[in-house]
Write a structure and sequence with these properties.
24% strand, Pantoate--beta-alanine Ligase, Chain: A,domain 2, 137 residues, alpha+beta, rod-shaped
Length: 137
């Protein structure tokens, strides 16, 4: 039994025979392969970063558009107040967002129409300004 174990160990410990034309991988080839793999990983991670930033910008723009439209519709539903004035804002806003709504008179028109300017802010910086009109009915 010991001879069997020894013969197996001896077979496994022998160096494999190198056939001509089948040399091992050189250090240069390994370094080139690692550089290619590293470059691919860097490109992949930068694309993830860019995608993440794009999602954040799209969220901000979409939320600002929806808030501006909602505010204009809310102002139109309120009672008419002669311009210049500021209208109250919608109550439920996402965290970090704020909205202002101001009315101005339109020159050379009657007093029954006014321009509504809605500005949406995120963290104190203006993100979007949208205009609409309110008519006294």
């Amino acid at each position: 039994m010991r001879t069997r174990v020894r013969s197996r160990v001896e077979r496994l410990s022998r160096r494999p025979v190198v056939v001509r034309g089948q040399d091992g991988v050189s250090l240069v080839e390994v370094l080139v392969a690692m550089a290619i793999a590293g470059g691919a990983i860097v490109m992949f991670l930068s694309s993830l970063s860019t995608g993440s930033k794009s999602v954040g910008v799209m969220y901000e723009q979409t939320m600002a558009q929806n808030l501006a439209r909602s505010q204009i519709e809310y102002v139109k539903s309120l009672e008419y107040v002669a311009a210049p004035t500021s209208y109250e804002c919608i109550e439920s806003l996402p965290p970090g967002f704020s909205v202002t709504a101001e009315a101005t008179a339109i020159a050379d028109r009657d007093e029954n129409i006014q321009r509504i300017t809605v500005t949406v802010y995120r963290d104190g910086q203006a993100v979007l300004t949208k205009e609409g009109f309110k008519v006294k009915r």
